[in-house]
Amino acid sequence: MRTTAEILRGLPYFSDLPEELLQAVCDLSKQIDVEAGKVIIEEGSTSEEMYVLVEGELVVTKHQDPRDVELARIGPGEVVGELALLDKAPRIASVSASIPSRLVRIPAEAFEALLEDSRVVRRMVGTVTSRLRSTEEVLRHEERMAALGRMAAQLMHELNNPAAAVGRASQELARLYEALRVEVESLIPGLGDTAATVPETPARMTNLDRLETERLVEEWLTEHLVEEPWELTAPLVAAGWNPARLDELISGLEPDLASRWVRLTALRANGGDLIREIGIGAKRISELVRVVKHYSFLDQAPIQEVLVTEGIDDTLILLRHKLRSIEVLRDYDADLAKVEASGRDLNQVWTNLIDNAADAMEGTGTLKISASNQDGSVVVAVSDTGPGIPPEVVGRLFDPFFTTKEPGKGTGLGLHTVHTILTRAGGKISVAGDGPGTTFTVTLPAVGSPT
């Protein structure tokens, strides 16, 4: 095992220290090994030491009720814990080992000795400034997302009631409209059985056929002295009427009554279409409210047993506008196991992965999503047919604020957030993107499986 002096001398932070100062620091310091999950710095605790990571990885988190927010990941050669020693204040974040790690623990008295060297101070100030800036950006993003979540919850509540009211009103309006039709037919003398000739189902037509039929119907309406034929043509054709059927409709009626009856028929068709559109619109709003509430797991416990495919399908509905020209293929195991996690957070994972896939394909291509049981885990793969990811970029994809998108089109926090959420849930994510196409694979422990 290397000595502490050999380790520190090999790091840029300490490489040019005077031998006497380096040895004084090493005499007070100690190498320690920590297991995965071990907390070495606890938020709010008294500052007594800083650490140099020799091997492994550390994760820095800050508690923002109701969860911990990942601020950064520390790699070998980096220093952590110096900020609180500088201002002699309680720790502003927690630090734990994400994998088994080896560190050098440098106590406060050794840190004070280091501050006598201006080179160390300059490096420390640069590191602290960069870290504070990064931390501020992450926390601001989390605050914005939390505020957005609260606003979405209120919006869903406010939308649901009027949407339901409109849906009920459209149903009642359709009933009254049909009753009015029956009354009108019963009051017009000489009408006979003409109502029976109403087309049952409008025939499908090409655009050219529709335009030609509209021309013929408008001519027919003009010949029969029907008022405002240009306004009545489209609804009549949409309802399945043509000149031959209109002849049947007015067979045996006086000319004046015939023209009025045709006009009433057109207005009826148009009114019926509007009622149906209102009903469809209200139903669509209610469905979107349901999806968003389910997607965001509003009013549910932070951790649930989640069937991941439900969240994926809800996400596909919410991103439907972005996927309209993309072929979506789904392949789910019929007996897919559940996972224990925050449903809201997992849906953020699916949103980021699917949204990124759509961006990579620039609106056209094939998106394939599979979900399967594998060795006590639930494995979800999201694949696109985009250009792939350069090998030199793959290793940085999950770093905070790293993005391959143009300035202004990405924050660099999406995949970092995905990695944080999955790590917190005991899962992991990998990427294969040496092209063409990219596949992100998410692995989560199934409910009841050993972790």
Quick rundown:
With 451 residues, the protein is an alpha+beta fold. The protein has helices at 4-9, 19-28, 82-87, 108-114, 118-187, 207-223, 229-238, 243-249, 255-296, 308-318, 343-361, 391-394, 414-424; strands spanning 30-34, 39-41, 49-55, 58-64, 67-74, 79-80, 94-97, 101-107, 304-306, 326-332, 339-341, 365-374, 377-384, 428-432, 438-445. Strands 10-12-13-15-14 form a five-stranded mixed sheet, with helices on one face.
Question: Can you walk me through this structure?
Answer:
The chain is α+β, with helices and mostly antiparallel strands and 451 residues long. The chain folds into three domains: 4-116, Jelly Rolls (Sandwich); 163-292, no CATH class; 301-445, Histidine kinase-like ATPase, C-terminal domain (Heat Shock Protein 90), CATH 3.30.565.10. 49% of the residues lie in helices and 19% in strands. The protein is built from 13 helices and 15 strands. The protein has a five-stranded mixed sheet with strand order 10-12-13-15-14, with helices on one face. It has a four-stranded antiparallel sheet with strand order 1-8-3-6. It has a four-stranded antiparallel sheet with strand order 2-7-4-5, with helices on one face. Helix 9 packs across helix 10 (308-318). The longest helix has 70 residues, at 118-187. The radius of gyration is 34 Å and the shape is elongated.
